[in-house]
Design a protein that fits this description.
The complex is a heterodimer of chains A (about 190) and B (about 80). Helix content of chain A is about 25%, strand content about 30%. Chain A is of the alpha+beta class. Chain A starts with a strand and ends in a 6-residue tail after the last strand. In chain B, helix 1 packs across helix 2 and helix 2 runs antiparallel to helix 3. The relative contact order of chain B is 0.23. The radius of gyration of chain B is 11 Å and the shape is globular. Classes of the chains: A alpha+beta (about 190), B alpha/beta (about 80). Chains A and B meet through helix 4 of A and strand 1 and helix 3 of B.
C-alpha cells in the first residue's frame, strides 16, 4: 500500500499512514537493515529516511519535518581508501549489470534529501539526468565494487540512485567492478 | 552494445529489451517502462529529446556513449 506525504506548513508534513509504520522502518534503519525499505514506495521511504516527529496529539505523531540529510541506510564499514585500485577493475572497462540494492554496503556516511528526491521524481533510467551536475565519467553510472575474497558489494558511486531504487523495489543498473581490498583491511 | 542511458541502448543490449526502429516507437516503449534498443545514436538522441530529457543531458550522454563505442567498450 502506497503512502502520500502532504505539506501542511513550512517544514511541516503529514502522511496518510500510521506513524508507527514509519517508526518501525526507522527502527530497522538504525540497525542498518536496508532491506526493510525494499519497495515501500517513495513517500513512506522518504518519511522513514528523513522524517522527524514534529507535533504530537497525545502519544501519536501528528506531523513531522523532513531533514536535509540522513545517514545512508546501508552498512558502512569501508570507504574508497580501503580499496586496492591497482587490483580492481576500472569502471570504464566493465559492462552494466543489474544489482539488487538490498545486497550492498555504502562507502559514504550520508544522503541528501534533494538527491533521493531527484531520483524518485526524475525518470533517470530513461534520461540519465543526474542530481550532481558535475560532469564526471566516474559518476555517469552507479559503480559497485565487489570484493573477490568475501563477495562484499560496496557502492562507490550512486548512493542516492541505489537508495531510490531500493525504495521503489527495483534493481539498479550499475558498473560492477571486481577487485580486492588493500592488504591488512579487516573484513 | 552501448548504453546511452539505463533504458536506451544502441546496437545490442543484454537486458530484456524491445527493438525500436524509430524514435516515436522508442518513446512509446519507454513510457511503458521498457528498455529499448535503437539503430543509431541519432535515433537515440531524437527519442530522448522527444521523451523530454534535458537537451544538455542528452548531448552529454550521447557524447559519452559515442566515445565508448569508438574504443570498442561494451556495456
Amino acid at each position: 500500500m502506497t503512502a502520500t506525504i502532504t505539506k501542511i506548513a513550512s517544514d511541516e508534513f503529514v502522511i496518510d499512514r500510521d506513524w508507527k509504520d514509519v517508526a518501525k522502518l526507522q527502527s530497522a534503519l538504525r540497525e542498518r537493515d536496508a532491506a526493510a525499505l525494499w519497495g515501500v514506495g517513495a513517500d513512506l521511504g522518504r518519511a522513514a529516511l528523513f522524517g522527524k516527529a514534529k507535533r504530537f496529539e497525545g502519544r501519536n505523531v501528528a506531523s513531522f519535518s523532513l531533514a536535509l540529510t540522513t545517514p545512508v541506510p546501508y552498512r558502512f564499514r569501508f570507504s574508497h581508501g580501503h580499496i586496492d585500485d591497482a587490483r580492481t577493475e576500472s569502471f570504464s572497462a566493465v559492462p552494466l549489470k543489474d544489482v539488487d540494492p538490498r545486497t550492498v554496503e555504502a562507502s559514504q556516511f550520508g544522503l541528501r534529501s534533494g538527491g533521493v528526491n531527484h531520483y524518485l521524481t526524475v525518470p533517470y533510467d530513461v534520461t540519465g539526468e543526474l542530481f550532481d551536475k558535475t560532469r564526471n565519467a566516474s559518476n555517469d553510472w552507479p559503480v559497485i565494487f565487489v570484493d573477490e575474497d568475501s563477495g562484499t558489494k560496496i557502492v562507490q558511486q550512486g548512493h542516492h540512485r541505489t537508495t531510490a531504487a531500493l525504495l521503489v523495489g527495483q534493481l539498479v543498473r550499475a558498473r560492477v567492478v571486481r577487485g580486492h581490498f588493500k592488504e591488512g583491511v579487516r573484513r | 552494445m552501448t548504453a546511452v542511458t539505463a533504458r536506451v541502448w544502441v546496437g545490442e543490449c543484454h537486458f530484456d529489451h524491445v527493438v525500436c526502429e524509430s524514435a516515436e516507437d522508442a518513446v512509446r516503449e519507454l513510457a511503458a517502462g521498457t528498455t529499448v534498443v535503437v539503430p543509431s545514436f541519432d535515433v537515440a538522441r531524437e527519442a530522448l529529446e522527444l521523451f523530454g530529457a534535458p537537451v544538455d543531458e542528452v548531448a552529454y550522454r550521447i557524447d559519452q556513449a559515442r566515445r565508448r563505442n569508438r574504443v570498442g567498450a561494451t556495456d
